[in-house]
Design a protein that fits this description.
The chain contains two helices and 14 strands. By secondary structure, it is mainly beta. It has one domain (24-180): Jelly Rolls (Sandwich), CATH 2.60.120.760. Strands 3, 4, 8, 11, 12 and 14 form a six-stranded antiparallel beta sheet that branches. A hairpin with a 3-residue loop joins strand 6 and strand 7.
Length: 181
């Protein structure tokens, strides 16, 4: 059943399901945050800000994690992919809300990766055009990072946001899926 895009749920004719364990190196962990719901992260204008995640939310799910990884996230939101085999990759779906102080605020995202040398993967999240003082939720963006070298795999990865005006951020969490590239 695995075709390089797993893991999968396999549904039987009687309505039950089972986890496809054909490749125990694939799986996912869902990390829900609780801290930013109480104390949102303050982002200052044009400043890259690391988005934290305590992983303590009620919907944190480690049931389907890859067999070799107890955790894929460390240090309050940094990712540790050092146990993932080279040639595998991770899909990361962040779920966060931004509240801008100014209408038409531009939000950008990046992953800070590696240490020797460090590098970034960046994207534009969008321009917030429906007014200031309201939250804008972003939850369906999927970001792919492949483990093509030891610099990427063996060093922590951080998720960061930047905005063109002061904002606050509430991080609902993220899910990290490991698969064969």
């Amino acid at each position: 059943m695995a075709d390089g895009f797993g893991p999968y749920f396999v549904f039987s004719q009687n309505g039950g399901s089972q986890w496809d364990t054909e490749d125990p190196k694939v799986g996912f962990i869902d990390y829900n945050d609780t801290a930013t719901a109480i104390t949102p992260i303050v982002m200052l204008e044009d400043d890259w800000t690391t988005i934290t995640n305590d992983g303590l939310g009620p919907f944190t799910n480690k049931t389907f994690r890859p067999e070799y990884a107890d955790e894929l996230m460390i240090n309050n939101g940094q990712f540790d992919f050092s146990q993932i085999p080279l040639g595998y990759g991770v899909d990361i779906r962040q779920d966060f809300s931004v509240t801008p102080t100014i209408n038409r605020t531009l939000v950008e995202a990046r992953y800070q990766i590696g240490a020797g040398p460090a590098y970034t993967l960046e994207t534009t999240v969008g321009e917030l055009v429906q007014g200031s003082g309201r939250f804008y939720r972003f939850s369906l963006y999927l970001h792919y990072v492949y483990m093509g070298d030891t610099n990427t795999r063996d060093n922590p990865l951080s998720f960061q946001l930047k905005a063109s005006s002061d904002c606050t951020v509430v991080n609902a969490g993220c899910v990290v899926r490991v698969s064969r590239s």
